[in-house]
Design a protein that fits this description.
CATH architecture: 3-Layer(aba) Sandwich
Mean pLDDT: 93
CATH superfamily: Gcn5-related N-acetyltransferase (GNAT)
Pfam family, one: Acetyltransf_3
CATH topology: Aminopeptidase
GO molecular function: acyltransferase activity, transferring groups other than amino-acyl groups
Protein name: Acetyltransferase
InterPro entries: Acyl_CoA_acyltransferase, GNAT_dom
Number of domains: 1
Radius of gyration: 16 Å
Structural class: alpha+beta
Length: about 190
Amino acid sequence: MAENSSIWQGELVRLRPVQPSDWVKFHKDGMDSEIARLNDAVYGPRSEEGTRRWTEAETEKGWNGDSVRLSIENAAGEFAGSISTDKCDPRNGTFSYGISIFREYWRKGYAGDAIRIVLRYFFEELRYQKANAHVYSYNEASISLHRNLGFQEEGRMRNMIYTKGSYHDLLLFGITREEYKKISEPLRL
């Protein structure tokens, strides 16, 4: 990407607010059962109008304390996925996040870049101390990504996820501000 003049811009992507027009890709993504299993769970089908309304609500919601959903855009300006923060606890300095990259943008480094942007913001601007990520044991790509980003596997909750006729474990990953500082590049604004 262009020179990094915004904290919301990484090497490969930038994070921006959800726009009403994002509904089209959100809808297509929501109809892919494999992606649904990797992100959360397979739900019943949603109408186009339902997805439009959900996207408009996300657009209007914006920031709720430190919780937010942001769209991920690549250097070409293409909407490539989203990242959201939740379970934000400023008192204890902990937060969690979830990320989803649309299938056609897998394996391009966008997820890692978006996560680094969120970590940078929460650790360097909001004084958070720790980020947590929950990863399903069958999501090998996400497990590898989090390990490569410097996250530590902190626990395993057995048989927590039921999908496709089987139970699976939920892996708990975490990274502290100090661990992040050891592996991050200096802040470039």
